[in-house]
Amino acid sequence: MKKSKLLLIFIAVLTVLNVVYYLGQWGGPSVLQYVSDTLPVLTSFIAVVCLYHTFKAFKEIDFARVSWVLIFIGIFFDFLAETTYAILEIGFKIDMNEYFPSLADIFWCTAYIPLFAGLFMMFFGYKRSGFPLGKMKVYAIIAASSFVVFVAMAYFLLIPILSDNESDDITKLFYMYYPIADLLTVIPAIILFYITTLFGRAAISLPMRMLSIGFVCFTMADMLYAYLGWLDIYGNGNLIDVLWHVGYLVIGLAGLYQKELVESVNAQ
Amino acid sequence: MSSYTNIYAQKIYEILVPLIGDMMTKGTLKSQAAKLGINEESIAPVHLPALAEELRRGLVAFLGSDAAKAVASKIMSIR
User: CA–CA separation, A60 vs A55, rounded Å?
Assistant: First the structure.
């Protein structure tokens, strides 16, 4: 069985178990904390391994390989962040809801840079390919929607955070960084998703499509987290965690699809 | 799947369609043939190197250089 199929089955099973456990929360708060902190470490690690094998599948250094290397670096920083968070909360018994921002947040914030660069390079590489970009009307809709989302985000999230007198400036900066960085990352992801629709169900479209879905999961989770965290009502076992876990695994799956595509073409 | 009466166009179509899909393959064949001043039904062996090179460049973004070269080699070796 292909590794991508195995991972797809794993994603389905883990997601169901994750949701069921978070709804039931058996074992009490300490078990919940262990599960809540180790699942993102596991899923991000799986994504890192998949992405490592992805860029290794490309023999020459070119746009495609560099794009995937950047995605790998970004997800690796996410893995470092998840691991740091787990060690601080489980190992050092730090209340991470109070200890914000932490070293984990520095890793998370750093991760956005190569992730954005990787997605941008994919789009730029596609633009150079000579294949059609699709309808300009769709790009205009994406731009307009992004503006609307930004305005809504500013109104419901950024301005209230800025106006909050209880948080210090560093805390506010980190609270605002995440949703802004997410929006900047999800825009190229959505553009790439649109581009994949031009190829229908062709093999080439699947890796980028999965990558886009992964980043959309991250963005949704991060925006909900930013809001809940700022209201101080996010805690272990919140169902939005499932979006992060699925996001990591789907990005890993994107990498496996890409690897299998490259290898199958080379083998012919 | 749709087919071309031109054997070279048909074979290029069969190579590309699993990778980039029916619509994109037809569109690409049409546009690349037009660049050579011909239509798809007029593709001849002499056109294959130029077509292969253009398609290779287009596929690099998705497959990387080595896999794109592999596809181009398949197109060049159509008989």
Answer: 10
Chain A hits for B22, CB-CB cut-off 8 Å, are 200
What value does the CA radius of gyration of chain B take, rounded to a whole number of Å? 11
Helix (H), strand (E) counts: chain A: 9, 0
Q: Taking CB atoms and an 8 Å limit, are A202 and B54 in contact across chains? A: no
Cβ-Cβ contacts under 8 Å between A and B: the total is 87
Residues in chain A with CB shorter than 8 Å from the CB of B70 are: 265-266, 268
Q: Which residue of B has its CA nearest to A265?
A: B67
Task: ipTM value, please give it.
Answer: 0.89
Name the packing angle between helices A28-57 and A3-24 (round to 10°).
Answer: 160
Write out pLDDT tens, residues B28-65. Answer: 999 899 989 999 999 999 999 999 999 999 899 889 99
Identify the closest residue of chain B to A56 by CA–CA distance: B64
Say yes or no: A165 contacts chain B, CB-CB below 8 A.
no
CB atoms within 10 A of CB A39: 22
User: A39-57 pLDDT, tens per residue?
Assistant: 999 999 999 999 999 999 9
Say how many C-beta atoms besides its own lie within 10 A of residue A24's C-beta: 10
